[in-house]
Amino acid sequence: MDAACSTQLIDGDGTFNVSGVDHFIKEVKLEECGLSYAVVSIMGPQSSGKSTLLNHLFGTNFREMDAFRGRSQTTKGIWIARCAGIEPCTVVMDLEGTDGRERGEDDTAFEKQSALFALAVSDIVLINMWCHDIGREQAANKPLLKTVFQVMMRLFSPRKTTLMFVIRDKTRTPLENLEPVLREDIQKIWDSVPKPQAHKETPLSDFFNVEVVALSSYEEKEEQFKEQVYNLRQRFFHSVAPGGLAGDRRGVVPANAFAFSAKQMWQVIKDNKDLDLPAHKVMVATVRCEEIANEKFSSFIANENWRELEEAVQSGPVSGFGKKLSSILQSCLSEYDTEATYFEEGVRSSKRQQLQEKLLQLVQPTFQDLLGHLRSGALENFKNAFEKALDAGEGFSSSADSCTQSCIFRFDKGCEEAVIEQAKWDTSKTREKLQRDIEAHISSVRTAKLSELTTLYESKLNVALSGPVEALLDGANDETWPAIRKLLRREGELAVYGLSNALSGFDMDDETRNKMLSDLENYARGIVETKAKEEAGRALMRMKDRFATIFSHDSDSMPRVWTGKEDIRAITKMARSASLKLLSVMAVIRLEDELDNIEKTLTLALVNSTSNNAASKSISTIDSLASSTWEQVAPEKTLITPVQCKSLWRQFKNETEYTVTQAISAQEANRRNNNWLPPPWAILALVVLGFNEFMTLLRNPLWLGVLFVGYLISKALWVQLNISGEFRNGALPGLLSLSTKFLPTVMNLLRKLAEEGQAPSTNTNQTSSAHSGVTTNGESSSSSSSGSSPTKSVPIDKSA
């Protein structure tokens, strides 16, 4: 669009052309002017040449009246155009003429509204008037001036506007003579206009800068008119500079708010309300600054750099986050400042603060995420460094302190890089949380390490005490508990010393340290007590094992052979005494060097109670075992109560009685086996009574052979049937066993004899066929054969 092209701002019906004005402002680039622009409007009677003057003065193209068609209304409503070639940017408004016949005498509302609008918007108001009206009471310009002054009262705090009276068709009367008359008329009109109480005495000069210029007739003296217009045009250059034609600039709104301000002003004027320019200025500034702020906020949200930064923070810490985000925020705020710089300062600052708060509120979650990454990263680094320091053998407390300081330093450095210049956010809470997390981790590691140390030395004590204590209790004697106390003291001191050295690297108070060492000592004692309780639960088994060991083995630990010479009673008493010693040792825990009479009490009550000469004493002793506690022994140290000892001894005797009985039986059986010869008297009787039979045998040797064969058969049966072994368990069991084995054994012997006798018979037949005729020897061979067969059975019996 041509810069000089005009646009209707308000039509004849009073409708504001929003779209047209927006388009006009974009085309003439008014928004870029800031406060460096001026608004000029012109008022005057209809057909007084207003549009013609503007077109020649500012190079605009407002529609002009066609003189050949007669005088009529040319401009309807208010039109706007940009002045061509004038700097700074100057916008001119051409108002509808007054006292036109088209609207009639009574329809003056639009005239007043447009006049008020022109005074509120314009820096310079041109009042076009005829030269011949100066000094006349019924001049055409008087209603116009009254209108101007009246509507001026509706502006609560108007700015000082320049009123330039343009005298048209100047006559020969000099301007120096015309100007005083005009100013006098103006003052009269001002004085006659009703004023609010606050402005009763206010002079005209407080509201207006009055300028008067005169122009020749355009129709009669065109060249002179153009020259005078050219000279007048020069006064509009730099009109907004100090001392320029525009005058007071306090109420000017920035160029980018001109359309909105004009629309709101016209709406207020059209609604027949008083126009408060300062309030209007604040309102315009509020709306426009808020719009600018919203635009910048949306622009920030769509900013690629911010989006990339926000996305990067989601996955971890970002180096230089604070500088990057501060730069983006500052750029956004700078753009706001640039666009809102000409608006009212209080409103501009307030909206800027609101914009900054919204931006910071938008980025704060990302900032907190970054702090979270920094905190978690610092905590993870601390854990790794702390673990490495402990693995390297450094002291726990020194490692914790050094790693904590290093971690906090790196976190603080990361927070410094993350700080946003526009925000005063405090990172102390996150720092405190990191410190709490570090302290919690140190505490958990300390607890774990102390637990490991405690478990380590407890396991060492288990190994060092459990086996030896069990072995000592297994071989219970008078030195068992002294040896256990010595072992406990030695191993306990070693463990406490080792744990004490290990705890030197931990920064702990003496009370906690001493408690841990005391707990370790108590644990060592507990191991011994637990093992003693376990062994006490196996007391009966241990007693039987000891009894069996002593009863069944001699002093050289060789198995006893019950030959009949052993004193089973003495051996039994010795074995039972040893078992009783084991019972007395296991009855109570003796970790303190205190004497007791448990062994004596048990001996008197259980071993010596069967003595006839101590019958009366045993009764009282046995009664002493009818108790659940031992004398001079605390209940918590008791492992086996007296009543339990009595019961265990009874069970022990019952279960070992069979072993003693077996030994006695074995001894008797051995005696029987060793005494196989008959008594001497029987031998003498055999000799005397069997003399005749003996002589018979001597006379007939064949009987000797028969007896010999019978002896061999009997010996074979004796070996095969194991008669001596069978009768060791008693006569009746031996007979029953032999009765079942006798017949199978005899049949087996006969079968073997038959097999052995078959081999010589085969050899004899082969000899007879080789030496035919020798038949007599056959009987002899057969006889020899039958006589030799018993002889060959001896080795068979031995093998069997």
TrEMBL record:
Binding site for GTP: 44-51
BP GO terms, sorted: endoplasmic reticulum membrane fusion
Residue ranges of the region described as Disordered: 757-800
Taxonomic lineage of the native organism: Eukaryota, Viridiplantae, Streptophyta, Embryophyta, Tracheophyta
Biased composition (Polar residues): 759-779
Pfam families attached to this UniProt entry: RHD3_GTPase (PF05879), Sey1_3HB (PF20428)
Keyword terms of this UniProt record: Coiled coil, Endoplasmic reticulum, GTP-binding, Hydrolase, Membrane, Nucleotide-binding, Transmembrane, Transmembrane helix
Residues annotated as domain GB1/RHD3-type G: 34-249
UniProt-recorded name of the protein: Protein ROOT HAIR DEFECTIVE 3 homolog
Cytoplasmic side: 1-677, 723-800
Membrane topology: Multi-pass membrane protein
Molecular functions per Gene Ontology: GTP binding; GTPase activity
Compositional bias segments (type: Low complexity): 780-789
